[in-house]
Amino acid sequence: MARQGHSALAYSRTDYRDAAKKLGFLSSLLLDLCEEHPEVILLCTSILLTEKVLKSMPFQRLKRSTLFVDVLSVKEFPMNLFIQHLPEEFDNLCTHPMFGPESGKNGWNGLPFVFDKVRIGNDERRVARCNRFLDIFAREGCQMVEMTCAEHDRHAAGSQFITHTMGRVLEKLQLTSTPINTKGYETLLKLVENTSGDSFDLYYGLFMYNVNAMEQLERMDFAFESLKKQLFGRLHGVLRKELFGNSEELEVLQEKLVKQNG
């Protein structure tokens, strides 16, 4: 943002003044930030703390047309918070950059940036402001994807949540590198490394605040049980063949048993 010529103020409960300075941001207190009457408030909180942070904002010190933007990994949840807690005069834009420090470390070119213009005023100035904010990411090469928050959460539950779940399941197995790693196994190890680098609070948030997540867990349970049945079903057939030979011999044996019991 700073590189593109935008002025930015940063606020955090933790002292990140040095980091902010390196990024070209000015660090300030929350009240001081609001007194500057910024055009855009960009919330970069964890999922679990978003409501608390939003409620702590001194809205009365902001311009009535301020644009609020979030970058959470779930979308219906912050959308509902914005509608519930923000004054109606404020604009709301829900976004999700579909990348993180690892996947975006070499640039954002081609990486998806999802957004939903939940509530943007009709006047040209407010529409232009929203578009200028989105253009920050478009200029960095992001693939800009407009979809509703509900659509995002449906897709994310079947992709992002599944990815995090599989990574954490594999982490529980305590997989280690071997002298004969295959490319597929290396991919699994990388998945574990990536997902374990994220906090469990993030994973819990993906589950708790996406209404589609439980369905995906149930589908995974069903798929695992179905796969086990397929394996054990074939194993059962092999054991039967070893015990009783071919099917003709089995039929003869069954007929003898019927006659004996008849």
From TrEMBL:
- PROSITE patterns per record: PDH_ADH
Enumerate the UniProt keywords alphabetically: Oxidoreductase
Q: Which Pfam families match?
A: PDH_N, TYRAAT1_C
* Domain Prephenate/arogenate dehydrogenase, first and last residues per copy: 1-261
**Keyword Cell cycle annotated:** no
GO MF terms on file? arogenate dehydrogenase (NADP+) activity; NAD+ binding; prephenate dehydrogenase (NAD+) activity; prephenate dehydrogenase (NADP+) activity
Q: Which domain of life is it from?
A: Eukaryota
| GO BP terms | tyrosine biosynthetic process
Q: What is this protein called?
A: Arogenate dehydrogenase 1
